[in-house]
């Protein structure tokens, strides 16, 4: 209570308590040494730590040999998925309007780190009237040609330590991608368009990233199922599946095929390909950037469109579980409950 009072009294003034807070924040985010994943050696020099993080993320985002295109198509053809209609596709591929762009700029959060070009949200807000005509031409050119400005390829990965994890391990740091704001504006516009149609494409047992669908809905449903099991004394189990590095492990070829299966217009699929292909990143450690390396898989964190694309990416797995007759869900009043999805965490209800 005393600490809160001091914060209130001081506000933004330069006081000891503010200096202490800032010093602690800097100390918590500073990397003093790190273990190289491949050699196991402890690195203490800045250049060596850059090399360790670069090697870790380069390996994390390297393409992994998986299914062939024919195998992906065979799997997707074995499940039933809804598709977008012509009107919805027209909405997705329509030219970006001034109203959409103004709304996106107004929603930009201030006091945030800019991308590699150095232009901040405050700058876009201040000069929006001069920038909007130019940006509209660029955004609509991207949609029409499925090509992006070279600056959109670059991301800065800020490695933030996870609480309670070993700070000497690269895997103990959460990668936050910092993208240029013009890229963020374009992706937020496309995300707002797509989120209108997601409830038509995704079952309501999958929450996370879907507008107006709350995680607590699935939690409440799970509690009801547990209560039913206890009352009826049925033999049942709940199995939790937590996909490690799920967001960073997205296979792009599979994602493109999933979008095709959902009936998205080729313009949208090619635009997504343009945003992901030729992606590069640099890791920021202690305020300094590593060398650039290529990204070959994963969703772009910091991109407003990526969480929605991930939600669609997960649907085929969820639907294959629903359709699998060998997986017996829990039956309540004639309705079978098999699973609940929370972003990339899956809870499966099993009977007997």
TrEMBL record:
CDD domains named among the record's database cross-references: RT_nLTR_like (cd01650)
InterPro entries found in the cross-reference section: DNA/RNA_pol_sf, RT_dom
PROSITE patterns, A to Z: RT_POL (PS50878)
Domain Reverse transcriptase: 141-352
Top-level taxonomic group: Eukaryota
PANTHER family: REVERSE TRANSCRIPTASE DOMAIN-CONTAINING PROTEIN-RELATED
Official protein name in the record: Reverse transcriptase domain-containing protein
Organism listed in the record: Oryzias sinensis
